[in-house]
Amino acid sequence: MHSRAPKGRSFLAGGMILAALSGCGGGRTAPPVTPTAPATAGSATSVELPATETFDRAISRGTRTKTGAPGPRYWQQWTEYRLQAELNPISKRLTGQGSLTYHNRSPDTLAEVYVQLLHNIFAPNARHNTDVPWSVEGVELSRVAAQGQELKPSEKDAVGYQVDGTIMRIRLPRPLAPGESLPLDFSWKLRIPPDGAPRGGQDGEAFYINYWYPQMAVYDDVNGWQIDQYLGNAEFYMGYGNYDVALTLPEGWLVTATGRLTNPNDVLSPQTRARVDSATRAPGIVHVVTEADRSAGTSTTRGSNGKLTWRFRADTVRDVSWATSAKYLWDATNAAVGDANGDGKPDTTAINAFYRPELRASHWDQSARYSRHSVEFFSRFIMPYKYPHMTAVDGPTSCGGMEYPMMTCIGGQWDTLGLYEVTTHEIGHMWFPMMVGSDEKRFAWMDEGLTQFDQSQSMDDFFKGFDDEERNRQNYMGFAESGGEVELMHHGDRYPNYGAYGVAAYYKPATILVALRGVLGRDTFNKAYREYATRWLFKHPSPLDFFNTFNDVSGQDLSWFWRTWFYETWTLDEAIDTVATAGDSLEIVVQNRERALMPVKLVVTRSGGQVDSLDVPGTIWLNGERRRTIRVPREPAVTRIEIDPEREFPDIDHSNQVWPR
Ligand SMILES: [Zn+2]
Questions:
Q1: What is the reported pLDDT for 42?
Q2: Mean of the pLDDT values across residues 135-146?
Q3: pLDDT average, residue stretch 437-465
Q4: How far is the C-alpha of 321 from the C-alpha of 406, rounded, in Å?
Q5: What average pLDDT does range 512-538 have in this prediction?
Q6: In this predicted structure, what is the pLDDT of residue 224?
Q7: Which residues surround ligand 1, an ion (CB under 5 A)?
Q8: How far, in Å, is the centroid of ligand 1 from the Cα of 275?
Q9: 508 CA distance to ligand 1 centroid (A)?
Q10: Which residue, 5, 89, 244, 528, is most buried by CB atoms nearer than 10 A?
């Protein structure tokens, strides 16, 4: 999801309210750092991270490791989905049927399973912590079956199902043993919400259909079932699977979805098919459907009874969403992604943009170009894009910018900078959390923070030197100084307000990744970042897997860094305290005035232009030391001393980092 930076009002998106939440973590005081080594001067190199019994247990069971790589006994669940739906754009009603096969790859016997009904956020009396202006009806289930047996709503512990908000619990007729598969069948109806609904919906012309089918909740090796409610603010945790999807719409309505279209001959006209085909090779943008083409028989084929059924196949995805409109234009091209399938040859992916003609005013005619650059950039920067297409869709305003596998829904008005920014941000999410499937609800930084950082890298490349990192840093530091900060290791639905969530999810993690790059050097940072993505491709990493991978690849114990920036709200204030001559030397006293632990990057400039760089490691502060004296030769005369002149670290007061003042 895209976060609009704070400008005056209380942070972003239309008055999001989190006040109803209890047990918020604002304003906690930081405990002292606990060195793990004996507290003799200069000996401590490590600090304790808060105990994680569940992760330790996963290590002892061999599903995780201390190096950050998945363990030899790592497992995750898998689901095969066969879904069909018909949408009536007049009544806005969707009728769906689904047959799921859930494969229990865990070592555990499951007497019950959990299914997400995320659309129930629109049910009457639903709990939510964001504005949901439309609260009329949730998912109307007309059939639930498991293991071939029809199920009814039941009391707890009786065979049957119970729906609690967005989570459905199914007590199975027979327990599901390790290695067994579970057939589940559902029939349902739901109504597509109007503009104003979070992350999708319809505005009468464009329909973005999200969270529209019963979806297995995640059962993982660290925490078991993750059945946190969808309340609107915090995002999602989804398992991987394959999907066969059949979508029935009126003829003349273009449909785009997660996955490959498997029946183009049935639904696309010969003209459209030829243009799509040419776009797979074209160096430029192909206008597949123009204003003049938008009709049944020209853009689409003609259907029977005025309807067409579009079939899609999506492999190894965590969700499927789709969009449709009779008004869409369709631009297409292709992007070079490197060797995505491991056969040693370069691969390409299809790039699409679907938008209404009036959205040219918001630069949607540039969308395919922006998407192509983003996919190509992230494929180089992180790892090759693995999916068959990337498609940007103009949707209802309240989409803002929202990511789905292979898809993004973008709503509202944009200038060129803004449209590139939101497009590249959502495309960045194809890596985190779509291909690297973290728990966005409990650890928003693993998805939004990494993506906000990635967005800065692609913006720098596209706009040649545009400093988005500085914008993130200003957003973080401004909020940190206000005193309302909450640590990153905090459930996304338990921040006291959207400002604290936005900083912890987006701007602070993006900023401290820049700082980590400053600590490790760009090459080591990039290597560790890519290693994390590659190790956890199509898997479920936890924060410790991220931390441990960086420790492993860099060969350093970075626990002081993780503790400072992820578990605490300590700020950084490194200063040049005094500078004095002592014989042939100049004694520079650097001081750590706040609680954050960081290296000191000291740059000494001399008359004649000689520049010396001195790096003092961050671990020197671990024993509680606040000052460190650094001696440098007095001659040639020192004209300037500065800490961190490249501003890699988010220091709250740069003025005390320069000598002479
Ligand atoms: Zn995002």
A1: 42
A2: 92
A3: 98
A4: 9
A5: 98
A6: 97
A7: 1, 448, 451
A8: 32
A9: 14
A10: 528
